[in-house]
Amino acid sequence: MKAQDMNRDWIATAATLNSALPYLQRYDGAVVVIKLGGHAMGSDEAMESFARDVVLMRQVGVNPVVVHGGGPMINAMLDKLDIQSEFVNGKRVTDKATVEVVEMVLSGLVNKRIVQAINAQGGMAVGLSGKDAHLMVCEQTDSSLGFVGSPSEMNPKILNDLFSHDVIPVIAPLGAGANGETFNVNGDTAAGAIASALKADRLLLLTDVSGVKNAAGDVVTELKAGQIREMTSEGTIAGGMIPKTETALDALHSGVRAVVILDGRAPNAVLLELFTEHGAGSLIRPD
Ligand SMILES: Nc1ncnc2c1ncn2[C@@H]1O[C@H](COP(=O)(O)OP(=O)(O)O)[C@@H](O)[C@H]1O
Ligand SMILES: CC(=O)N[C@@H](CCC(=O)OP(=O)(O)O)C(=O)O
């Protein structure tokens, strides 16, 4: 590269850093919970870019916590094993054989892929599930769904201990029940419960659309809780967006400062959201 090109690159970087400075200060010491959905994981390049963003967040003093899904990866393994699976209201009906596959895929394959990607970028990630250190104790959601759990008691101390050692926790959405059962928890629900327990500054829900869309199909960049309720009752918010916006409302109610729904596949999605004026996706605040 020629010297003048290097200078131009450096000037562009310095200008970007300068405009990001107030945001860097705003987020120093902040807790940011990031839910990475199975659809947002996509290619190896997308995973690498996500991991780089998370490591950079840690380097500028943010405490990131990654909570992941992996629905499409569970489906692929169930298919290979010839186990049928169905969803009721966005939750997978989970019998004994299915919960074993869910744990194997989420805590094994998916969790370790994310841990490895973050560590390859120079971070120090540790993989956990809600079972570790009693982080997320669960009870059965509804007997017709089998081993699907709802968080009933959260013990986030382990996460604070990890922050103080510069560790980035990566959490698979499974929890143990009082009788030693393993429960499968929807990834959005788990991320919301963890963000609530930590009273996080931000909960970022990374998905495969650029935000919450209005009836005309345009992304709404800022929403109040009341608007979400309205858009849901008129049917504008539907399908997979319902558990996300419900999680957002619950989290705001429990003391999370703001929730953002954004496209996890977009380059530098997380950094753009946190460290630029315009942000990315839909920012949801309390009324
Ligand atoms: N108002 C809306 N705005 C944006 N997406 C919506 C809306 N209503 C329903 N959706 C659907 O919700 C989907 C996101 O949910 P889902 O597929 O469950 O995501 P993930 O797998 O990332 O958890 C979008 O791809 C879109 O099809
Ligand atoms: C109870 C329930 O439905 N659990 C989910 C857990 C994974 C998940 O939530 O993955 P995504 O975020 O990629 O959708 C499941 O079994 O698919």
Q: Please, could you describe this protein's structure?
A:
With about 290 residues, the protein is α/β, with parallel strands linked by helices. It has ten helices and 14 strands. The chain has an eight-stranded mixed β-sheet with strand order 5-8-2-1-11-13-14-12, with helices on both faces. Strands 7-6-9-10 form a four-stranded mixed β-sheet. The protein is globular, with a radius of gyration of 19 Å. About 40% of the residues are buried. The mean pLDDT is about 90. N-acetyl-L-glutamyl 5-phosphate binds near residues 37, 38, 74, 102 and 185. This is Acetylglutamate kinase. InterPro entries: AceGlu_kinase-like_sf, AcgluKinase_fam, ArgB, Asp/Glu/Uridylate_kinase, Glu/AcGlu_kinase, NAGK-C. Pathway: Amino-acid biosynthesis; L-arginine biosynthesis; N(2)-acetyl-L-ornithine from L-glutamate: step 2/4. Catalyzes the ATP-dependent phosphorylation of N-acetyl-L-glutamate.
Quick overview of this protein structure:
By secondary structure, the protein is α/β, with parallel strands linked by helices. 45% of the residues lie in helices and 22% in strands.
Shape: globular
Quickly give the structural class.
alpha/beta
List all distinct small molecules, including ions and cofactors, that are bound in this structure. Answer: adenosine-5'-diphosphate, N-acetyl-L-glutamyl 5-phosphate
Count of DSSP helices? 10
**How many strand elements?**
14
- Unreliable stretches (pLDDT < 50, length at least 5) are none
- In terms of quaternary structure, what is this? single chain
Q: What is the string of helix and strand elements?
A: HEHHEHEEHEEEHEEEHEEHHEHE
Question: What order do the strands of the largest sheet run in, or round the barrel if closed?
Answer: 5-8-2-1-11-13-14-12
Give the averaged pLDDT, no decimals: 92
N- to C-terminal separation?
52 Å
Largest sheet: 8 strands, mixed
Calculate Rg over CA atoms: 19 Å
Helix content: 40-55%
What percent of residues are in strands?
15-25%
